[in-house]
Amino acid sequence: MIPAAKIRRTAAVVLTTGAVAAALGSGLADASGGDRTQEVRQAVQGGKARNVILLIGDGMGDSEITAARNYVKGAAGRLAMDTLPLTGAYTTYSVNKADPRQIDYVTDSAASGTGWATGHKTYNGAISVTPDGKPVPTVLELAKRAGLRTGDVSTAELGDATPAVLAAHVADRGCQGPADMAKCPAQDKVNGGPGSIAEQQVQTGADLYLGGGKARFAQTVKAGPFAGKTVIDQAKAAGYTVVTDEGGLNAAKPGGKLLGLFADGNMPQEWTGPAAKVGGTDPSRCTPNGSFGGPHLSTMASKAIGLLDAQTKHSRKGFFLQIEGASIDKRDHAADPCGQIGETAEFDKAVRASLDYARRHPDTLVVVTADHGHTSQIIPLEAQSPGQTATLITADGAPMKLNYATNTPGQSQEHTGTQVRIAAKGPQAASVLGVTDQTDLFRTLTRALAIR
Ligand SMILES: [Zn+2]
After folding, report:
1. Residue 109 Cα to ligand 1 middle (Å)
2. Could you give all domains of the chain from N- to C-terminal order, each with its CATH number?
3. 422, 307, 430: which is closest to 371 by C-alpha?
4. Which residue in 78, 270, 288, 406 has its CB near the most CB atoms, within 10 A?
């Protein structure tokens, strides 16, 4: 253990530097406690947005943001996502499938994504269908219909819930590929349905999809005009260029459609470190994941923004782009603090790239939010949690103890039912102020883009 006196001294020195950096570098996030009335007045803009960039940190509750800030910037530092000028909170609950009047206080990513994608409350596991199974139009589908360019980026499999809710409608989130349709008989192509999530994503035809999930797209289509071919073949026939590595992504030119499948399943995590365990760990730092194979989320985000910008340059219409940092959630489930913080730090780089674009294109609405809360909590060093804990040395040089105790140690840790942060910049950003609901975000996005 590091002696407490030494920790305090080190922390005090770095805190001072951190506070100066925050004050100089954060733009609108004024850490000095000054009068911000004028800044906020300037940040409130009505009217229409030409573009929307929606950034989702999966499972990124306030606790996950704070842990990442402490580790990466120090307690007095600020992340890029902290600098958005207008911030509120939104509620995330889902509803019971059999009786939608019954509230389910802890949502999953499928029901929560359906909330902002369609404006409808639904049950856990539903992909943009109502509790009675009806498909409802999504913000991406409406944007495409209105002539905007569209993109969907994630570090998860592209068929995972958050990327899926924009471009597919199935009864169960597990129905990712043609061989995964057991829980979605009504959508199965064999029964005359629209097909799996992967098939529907191709049919919906967003201008770009970038993420993992190659194995699902490599499955064989069971019925219809593409029977016997893979979903990748179907995508190529629909005009997609299919790339599978960072070189292919870098080489992609604006014009055609792009399908990037960079891993068989979910994309690899950025950082590794000690797993949380009962009784705790020695204080330690995180290390980069030696087996990481790019592209990083921020690389995909920058490329997506660049392609969509080039494709809309000579048009009156802009674009809608969703970017998800998926594995904040997945590493939180696994009680892996370095994994979780590394994903949050990389997600924050994607936020920075989006804000840089919005600075040059002020008619862009940027929204940064999460789909639900998650497990990790920052607890006192002396607390004896019955759950799994780990101690990390942060950018302050101080120890931070993270606790994972929403399920039996060793089991997958659980989502929580807390409200989460929603922050925005640009036209209609004021709609996120106060306490709203996840389904209100659908109306904010569609109003900003004037689509319905
Ligand atoms: Zn989860």
Report:
1. 6
2. 46-279+292-376+420-449 (3.40.720.10)
3. 422
4. 270
